UniProtKB/TrEMBL annotation:
This is Uncharacterized protein. Keywords: Membrane, Transmembrane, Transmembrane helix. It comes from Pedobacter suwonensis. The chain crosses the membrane at residues 12-34, 46-64, 76-97.
Amino acid sequence: MKNLQSGFKSPSTRIAIIFGVVILILSIPLIAMQFTTEVKWDLSDFLVAGALLFSTGLALELVIRNLKSGTLRTIVLIVILIALFLVWAELAVGIFGTRFAGS
């Protein structure tokens, strides 16, 4: 991990990489919308998904930068990813039944 981080020392470079990955992930439903009618995202869906992915990427970067190694770092990274998946699932299909559910 040390060699990977040494190539990306600049915070602006790491943020640009996070932004690029978010755009790459969001391009999947955008491309799917061109070929099928089963994917129906509007601008607000892309904005919410982009904000969720970008904030998760920044949180992961913050944890990686501040917690050097160990079990705590792994646990915090897993908790952040589980939170992302739970929020994403709630927004998509409403697994908890909140008013933000997508179904």
